[in-house]
Amino acid sequence: MQVSSLNEVKIYSLSCGKSLPEWLSDRKKRALQKKNVDVRRRIELIQDFEMPTVCTTIKVSKDGQYILATGTYKPRVRCYDTYQLSLKFERCLDSEVVTFEILSDDYSKIVFLHNDRYIEFHSQSGFYYKTRIPKFGRDFSYHYPSCDLYFVGASSEVYRLNLEQGRYLNPLQTDAAENNVCDINAVHGLFATGTIEGRVECWDPRVRKRVGVLDCALNSVTADSEINSLPTISALKFNGALSMAVGTSTGQVLLYDLRSDKPLLVKDHQYGLPIKSVHFQDSLDLVLSADSRIVKMWNKDSGKIFTSLEPEHDLNDVCLYPSSGMLLTANESPKMGIYYIPVLGPAPRWCSFLDNLTEELEENPESTVYDDYKFVTKKDLENLGLTHLIGSPFLRAYMHGFFMDIRLYHKVKLMVNPFAYEEYRKDKIRQKIEETRAQRVQLKKLPKVNKELALKLIEEEEEKQKSTP
Fold it and tell me: What residues does the Nucleolar protein 10-like second domain cover (predicted)?
């Protein structure tokens, strides 16, 4: 388990560490755990929580019991049962999944949008039905009151599929050339779609008419931002009845009140990468926005950074486990990320032991030690004659000093003082000898004649030495 801290917010990475191959026997696994410290200290929260190559999308069911993830290769979906902390089932698919939606409270009704225009429906037993949309899809949303699926993609039309009647309805005609993302407000059912021209069009599903347009591309340009291309909408998320967050392809997040066409706040990620997903954390009034490089958590009123998370591999999707401080990520790597942030909320019910574990770690803090790097100050660099390396990739600035490769440090140390190792070795040998001498039993040698008198005199001398300060 790896612990990081930013702005005094602890983030526990539960998925880091070495993973053991499945083909190893239990005997070899136990032997590795005895020998390797990294394997012994790792926490496998959910068994086999990974994909063969890459994970693209990850979601949690409404009841919180199941975690579903899609990935490659081969294209597949995996369902994990959190109550059993293991894989429940795995289903291989015909093509890669763009996105999917869980329609039921558990895993019994799932809809997949594939990259070959197919829409696939799965029931509890497995594959149920497959149909096709006219153009390539990029996102879809489900309108619960009318049982309509709204599909957006490489077309100006928004396709509607009614699941109650089992047929397509008349599409919604937008002013955009293509649509990237969409979302439906859970409170009043407003449908919003993000276009490649940088606009958000809002529609009323009851009358199938457009009720408003937001020009987010123009509002995302600030005095400090450098824009090389037209910002397109890459993420969209409603929060409550009146709040909406819009993510752009140039790395900005805009917060809107639906009663105004001007954004309340514009947050720039400063990386210039498209925003992948946006989530709201209501208990602390936070917004979680993620691009392929970083997950930023910031206050939705002031925009002040709360904390950030930068994984080792690029991000594809982020999912916030409901009513908890757990964060799940889909990465460009076989392992899916599991992060626990106690400040955001408690651990989920199925892994409540994490609260006790983090409390113990906070009570017994350990200093951070990097085995492959040596921390040196500027004075140490002057003694080693390495001040010319400041600003180069060989030194990484940290607090009041620098981190440098331990191998480079030993080489330079040996060149500066060739006899340093011999002196160190002699000192260690001398210390070992003194320790063994102190552990020996001290025998009192008594004369053969008058042993009792000699023993009495020795005891009197020891008492005098103890009494004298």
Answer: 369-417
